[in-house]
Amino acid sequence: MQKEITALEDNGTWSMVRLPAGKSRWVPNGCIKLNTTQMGVSRDIKLVLTFLAVAAAKNWKLHQMDVHNAFLHGDLSEEVYMKLPPGFSKNHAGLICKFHKSLYGLIQAPRCWFSKLIAVLQQYGFLQSYSDYSLFTLYKGSIRLHVLIYVDDLIISRNDSAVVSSFK
């Protein structure tokens, strides 16, 4: 567990601070999930099947890409604090974690990750579909690249293999 904590600290996920005045709040466990929308998840199997059918009809190869530790890449836009778990460290007595980056288990994590991914894809030149927010397309001259996102997995179809290599 110490390796994981060290990796998170090296990533700048949080800093140790004193709790600012007025920042205490009672927060429920968070395990109850009501009718929520999941970011980056295509819920329409028809889109997935169409994506695969178009790739097959055009004889385009498919590629799969997994973004490791995806939720740790998202930047938080609001202040989030966490009380240290018991036994975390005696050196941090009286301090709490102030998060700078997303972390698995935070309610904001999927949104932060997906927002970061959208920004990167758009910077690369992709356009987000109006009909399904998890589908992105890139048109550059004769190059065609399509990306379908499912949480931290990407399915990529293309007509140019060199583009996929540079994209990955």
From TrEMBL:
Keywords: Membrane, Receptor, Transmembrane. Residues 46-168 form the Reverse transcriptase Ty1/copia-type domain. It holds the Pfam family RVT_2. This is Transmembrane signal receptor. It comes from Lithospermum erythrorhizon.
